[in-house]
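notes to self, project folder thing:

trying the whole complex as one job this time. last attempt i did each chain seperately and stitching them together was a nightmare. three parts in total, labels are on each line so i dont mix them up again. if this works i'll redo the older ones the same way
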Amino acid sequence: MRKYLGNKTAILLFILPALLLYTVVVFYPVVQVFYRSLFDWDGLSEAKFIALDNYKRLFHDHVFFTSLYNSAVFAVIIAIVQITIGTLLAFAVSEAAMRGRKFVRITVFIPVVLSITVVCQLWLAMYNGEYGLINKLFEAVGLSYRQDWLTDRHTAIFALAAVNAWQYMGYHFALLLAGVKSIPESYMEAARIDGASKMKAHLRITMPMLAETYKFCLILAFTGGLNAFANMYIMTSGGPGTTTYTLTYMMFRSAFRVGEFGYGSASAAFLVIECLIVTLIINKLIARDPIVY
Amino acid sequence: MRKWTLALISATMVMGLAACGSSNDNKEQNSANTGNQAAGNNAAAANAGDSTNSSSTESVKLRIYAQYADEDTKGPYDYAVAELKKAMPNVELELDVQAQDDGQKLKTYAATGNLPDIFQAGLDIISTFKKSGNILELDKYADDFKAKIQPSAMNTLVTDDGHIYAFPYAGNEVAMLFYNKELFAANNVKVPTTYDEMMAAVNAFNAKGITPLALFAKEKWPTVALYDMFASRNDPAGITKLDKGEAKASDPEYKTAAEEIVKLVKAGMLPKGATNLNYDQAAALFHEGKAAMFLNGQWEIDASTKALGEKLGYMYVPAADAAAYESSKLTFSGGGGPGGYAVNPQTKDPELAAKVAAFISLKYAEFKFTQRGTPMVATKVDAPVVNKFPPVMEQLSKDIPSMKTTAFSWGLSNPKFKAAIEDAAQSLMTGGYSPDDFVSDVDAAISSK
Amino acid sequence: MKTLRMKYPISNILIWLYALLSVYPLFWMIAYSLKNNDEIFVTNPFGFPTHFRFDNYKTAWTSFNVPQYFTNSVIVSVVTVIFSLTFAVLFAYAVARMKWRLSGAARIYMTIGMFVPVQVIMIPLAILMRDFHLANSYLTLIVPYIAFNLSFATLVFYGFFRSVPVDLEEAACIDGASIYRTFFSVMLPIIRPSIATMIIFVFLAAWNEFPIAMMLISKESLKTLPLGLLFFQGQFTTDWGAMGAAMTIASLPTLLLYMLFSEQVENALTVGSAVK
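result (full assembly):
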């Protein structure tokens, strides 16, 4: 068996196309980013080698810390919201007895299908301080809780995270549903014959079996959150001021608005390392042994 | 299982299609010219026409990267292209529409050696491309253009190093505080000349449920302009002194400006959620009589006159006291800087490209002057005016000779300071950002220059 | 079974509410596409349009190259889906199931692609495309799209392969099937739900991708829909309804695709129980 699964030719044939393309088109530019982060460079003219100066500057730049904080807030919120709701919905929809599950399955994915521009435009209208739907709802239930959701220096990042969490929940739902579907029915049936309640059975059987899917969902949510850019770009342009900057946004500003490509590369390099560490931690935390049925 | 095989079959079919697609690519590259022609024609609407039988006059095709998004940018471009067709029928322009991306696409073009023959360049692009050799020095091609430039607009042609890199058309534009005369009169509010009067006006309008000042602070430059208006009451150089590192935000002239703005913002000077208001929304407030004042460049006169007619006026910026008001009232925030149509040094025929770039800039100015009723253009125009100047423009043109200007945020020369003041000024508009925060953020960018 | 349905009335209601909330943007977008500016911004931003202005669709379809953009988007997205899924599923199988020393490292290496902000590698990428002489062809988009979707797709497939019982391969091995045979006729059918899911995901990513297209495409005849939409925005600053119509047209294929392939995910049920 070991020999069977250790077929060298087969392994090479299987991995080479992906490995080659990925290395040239994705990894090589990343190496460039790390290399360029050691230079004082505007992206076009001759670059000056300055070793780690860009990184030293990063740690004295409070925009960097704002960005770091925002990326973390963003990542944590979307991870919690998306995975929790995704799990609950996936369990519910996989239930043969649920009414209209097909409808639910299709609809909760709709926000994912729409382009991020459409969704951001909708939420810009919803959040609007004067005539936005959200403030109107608060008024309707008699709360005088009017807010400038996107222009308050402290709530803006949460308001943005909510939009992203809502839009891409469907991703996690679809992944988890596919996971639940590939677990043989017999396991759940066996558990239920044993007298476990539905919820308990899910906790004991389904969720551990989905470990790999969860691991992936976590990585996806965290790296996606740390990388957040489009929501800010469309909805707040990083503002008010720098309050909704993320590392990606900061990189964009440094490289193109300020013309400091080297410095922007340093914040991008930091981001890549940060994501790598988070991924490794998630990998360590969730069991990696293949599940044996 | 049937559905699955179906999917596989359709997949293989598309694979075949893909193969056809890639062979088409090659063909497309061979016939790239015709493809481009089609694209150019399409984008430049009716202006491009016969491209077939002009080989006798040796037709030349130039790629141009220009703004072409709304009425404001399409009008002059179409006009210039039509005029070019008359003057140089052998030159054909292939338009590549400029992206709103802080120059990212243009810089990528430069990095890959794919720069268009002619492109629009602001001061930041000029200074970056100058260093990297991506912009042609136009000194020897500029004699004709120089003869036509308004003496007062020489600053938009020649950069600090004494050379010419772009042919300007915009002239020295300024930011203005517009107001609705009827709203002030109906509510018994005095047009403010001092900070105290400004505060009184803010309170009076708020009491009536009228927004005192509409500001589209989602864009950052209007917030910088507002700050600069206040700062230039204390020092006529305004933000340009900070830009050059000759002053610090902690200096009293600059710090008090921030303090006054924060006070007014806290009193409710701006509409709710101002930092997320775009131009359309803020202008609607002012045009519909829901806001008493409005900050924008002088190019707003056209639109606001259409909406408000005789009710439209502009005020000088309030200052600390009456004396300061009088002495500083002709200092306007804004002003022009080098920028306009520039030329790629790698272009096949630099002389021709420069000639075309200069021609287009001249026609832009002509269009703005004759059709849009704006006297603030870089070059002299001798064509007759089609749309006559609105009354506010007449009034403004009387101020022009003795006017002093500072800079718009896009005319700042230190990109690091520019980014910092843009972010900090926008934060000021939220009211939750203290003058001390402002000072420390801005000074951090000045000192690290 | 009947009792089950009655057991969770509250949670059912909540799920239904959530589903409705998810449909809302679709409704909003379609309503938007049938309104005029005044309704969109002031009088009726969230409700049903008072008149159906179908003219908006005509304006959107005819005044720009929408059919061309549409075709380009289809070509680019379909080719991207086929190749990135093929490459990813092969790679994932080798990493998840086969025994070789560097498989763990290879997987982590592949993961890095997920957290590279595309903005920062734009310039190196543009230079790369130029050096490969791919500039101004469909491949200038297709090649990066395939490469950028590899990380994501590989990781998803990896997760699914890991949860497949080992005894399947053992059985196939004992039956004398080659490793290739095992892969194609035993493993692939099992992970069918995830392939269906990934077709949707990768298609969506390619269909909606914007930054790379923005940077690398300048020829009108190669523009994809998101890029075309951007220039719509300028064109229609005075006509937002037509903009909404264009957005609706652009969203249709992805919606249809999802409905089609999510069925595949559902049907996997039978396969899943048949395996054991």
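what i see at first glance: The mean pLDDT of chain A is 85.
need to look closer tmrw
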